[in-house]
Amino acid sequence: MPSRPPDLPAAEPVLTDGQKLIELILGSEDWIHRQVERVDIQPTGDTIHRVSMDLTVPAGLALAGSRGAVVVPVTLLQKGPLSCFTVVGPEELPVPLLETDANSRLSATFLRALAAATYGYSAAQEPIEVGLLITDIVSSDQRRGRLATERLRRFLADRPTGPVDQVEVATFFSMAEVFSRCFLMAIELDASLVGRRCVVKFSHLDTRNDPHDRPRYEMSWDLEHFGVAGSYHFELLSPQLLEITSLTLTEVTGSEVHRTAAELPSVGVSTGHLAARPRARLSAAAVVVGLVPRRYGVVSQSFAVAWLVAATLAVVVLGRTLRDVWLPGAVVAPTTAAILSAAGAIVLTWIARTPEDRIVAAVLRRPRRHLVGAGALLILAGLYMAVPVPEPVRSVGWWALLLAAAGVATAATVHRRRSRPRRSG
Amino acid sequence: MLDTYGNGMDRTNGRAVSRMGADNTGPAIADYLEPPGPDVARFVYRGRTGALVGLSAGIKDVAEARKVVASLRAKAAALT
Predict the structure, then answer these.
(1) Which runs of E-coded beta strand occur in chain B?
(2) What is the pTM of this model?
(3) What is the pLDDT of residues A246-265, one digit of tens each?
(4) Nearest CA to CA, how far is B46 from chain A (Å)?
(5) Which end of chain B is more exposed for a tag (fewer CB within 10 A), N or C?
(6) Which domains, ranges and CATH numbers included, belong to chain A?
(7) How many beta carbons lie within 10 A of that of residue A272, not counting itself?
(8) According to the model, what pLDDT value does residue A5 have?
């Protein structure tokens, strides 16, 4: 039998696709250098996630794709239809995304190799049930996938094996459960890009819901893909009429929690940027952005008008009292009622002076209520002035209007104070 | 130990939290850790991306997470 000459380099072991996928997925931070995620809030209130990945496909781990191309698993995405999804590769050119069947085959190959590594058997010793159940996990809908995961758990628990690490077993089944909910997003890149640094970008729509009515607002995103790359960057441009007061990223690895906060100026900013280096491949994270209404437009107008109306009605009540003392019997000009009603109508026009999305509309709900209250009181005062209500009921009516205006002004002041977080220290 | 998404108890104590996204059956990561304050409404976007491992994998900390990944990679590399 001929022997290899001693001066030749040792031959690289040939890895199976399963081994390559384990290296690519579990060791993704070695070849995905940076992940930049920008969140754009649309006028409808929906958000578009634009993710950019800076990566180098390792030469030894390239998976054969169609002619002249390699398959690259990039991230995990929830099963189900994706909206507004686009993916582009180098030079901003679209790149092919593997279809469901091909993605499922890749996912199954990964999980079967991982099961073999976890339970310590070779590919030839793999029970046929494992392959069938894993295929069911990755290719079925979420409910059936979860059932298949449980059947696989019971099958492997009942099967006699050698000593296994229970944390590795739990990790494997956690991954199987993830693959019952998600699919492996894999793209094809030109084979000439293997070993070369390149950028892949993808974007998708995120759903939304009607927000609540509170003085301050937070937006929170789950970043389950946080640990994919060597470093992670998050960027958010605040909706108009809102400003960012805080931006924190909380990394979770098992039960260990680590928080990173962006340094922002005290005045609030429109664009928040935060960078973090994941501590482990299995880390997930959440980013929370603190938002407050920007003090201009309807926000400032509602506050100012509420107090202006209260002051106007206070002047009316005071004027009536002084008139009774100094000029009894004097009458007010008949145009005053029309002026008050017109002022109320002008105040109400501030309600919608700028275009906005649904989130901003919700944020402005309370200031607008104050504005509506103030404008309505002015119109009511004008109407009340035009109606010949006898004394002393007339005076009581003016006092009631004044108290209502003071109530609206107080509510506007309380909202204004609470719409800024208290600064400690 | 933090619970798995979708199976966890709501720990937001009735605070104002809007849940969004495909998997909106359980609390989001941020709500587990720190629910919003009394004057704050939080809009939770769950997103479409998935974690490689759920929060119930039994992993204690960063060191154990790194150890289990390194061990699985080594065992996979040794597969025949």
Answers:
(1) 17-20, 40-45
(2) 0.77
(3) 899 999 888 888 888 888 88
(4) 5
(5) C
(6) 17-33+51-200 (no CATH), 213-293 (2.60.120), 298-418 (no CATH)
(7) 24
(8) 52
